[in-house]
Amino acid sequence: MERTFVMLKPDAVQRGLVGEIIGRFERRGLKIVAMKMVHITAEFAHQHYAVHVGKSFFEGLIKYITSGPVVALVLEGTNAIEVARATMGATNPARAAAGTIRADLGLEMGRNLVHGSDGPTTAAFEIGLWFSPEELLCYPRSVDAWIFE
Ligand code: IDP
Ligand code: MG
Questions:
Q1: Given this model, what pLDDT does residue 31 score?
Q2: Beta carbon of 14 within 6 Å of any ligand 1 atom
Q3: Ligand 1, pocket-test mutation among 7, 91, 100, 126, most atoms within 8 A of CB
Q4: Cβ within 8 Å of residue 11, ≥6 positions away
Q5: Sequence-ordered list of residues with C-beta below 8 angstroms from that of 62, at least 6 positions apart, any chain
Q6: Dihedral Cα 69, 70, 71, 74, nearest 10 deg
Q7: Residue 109: CA count within 13 A, CB half-sphere
Q8: What is the distance between the alpha carbons of residues 65 and 118, in angstroms, rounded to a whole number?
Q9: Is 115 a catalytic residue?
């Protein structure tokens, strides 16, 4: 079973879309194994987005992501990384496929509502950055047999 890190960005919280967005991941069948609300510092944001240091949008991205509280989650399921990214849609909401979070709820790249790990290495790094091992909960759901073959 794979795990991925997902973050609902400050615009999702401010616009009252937390339930709508988390609900989409839940309905997909992904299991929430950790969740918390945090207002991150610029230093922490630099760690999270270290791969983007030096890019034209980097300073704007740090300002955006530290502008208010975010909701951080770890989701678990079959192909969780790929499935979460597909549920989110392409980085630019204007190009994202209809039915995805970014297409249905957003318009601009710099206000695209949600983050998801882009691969196994990134997922392991981000889960470790945001959560301590004790915060990752292992529990069965009664519906698991109807979601996982
Ligand atoms: P991703 O979130 O789809 O993985 P990345 O390329 O990793 O996309 O970029 C991280 C975040 O930086 C994006 O989600 C978006 O909020 C922001 N971003 C990326 N490129 C641009 C841009 O060209 N203009 C404004 N913001 C951008
Ligand atoms: Mg990315």
A1: 98
A2: no
A3: 91
A4: 17, 64, 106, 111, 113
A5: 42, 45, 46, 49
A6: -140
A7: 9
A8: 18
A9: yes
Q: Which two tokens stand for residue 91?
A: 């980085």
- Which residue minimizes the CA distance to atom 6 of ligand 1? 91
Q: To test ligand 1's pocket by mutation, which of 81, 109, 117, 121 has the most ligand atoms within 8 angstroms of CB?
A: 109
Q: Is the CB of 118 under 6 A from ligand 1?
A: yes
- Tell me, what's the pLDDT at 134? 98
Fold of 2-147: Alpha-Beta Plaits (3.30.70)
Contacts 24+ apart (CB under 8 A), 59-64: 60/110, 61/110, 64/9, 64/10, 64/11, 64/110, 64/111
Which residues of the chain, if any, have pLDDT below 50? none
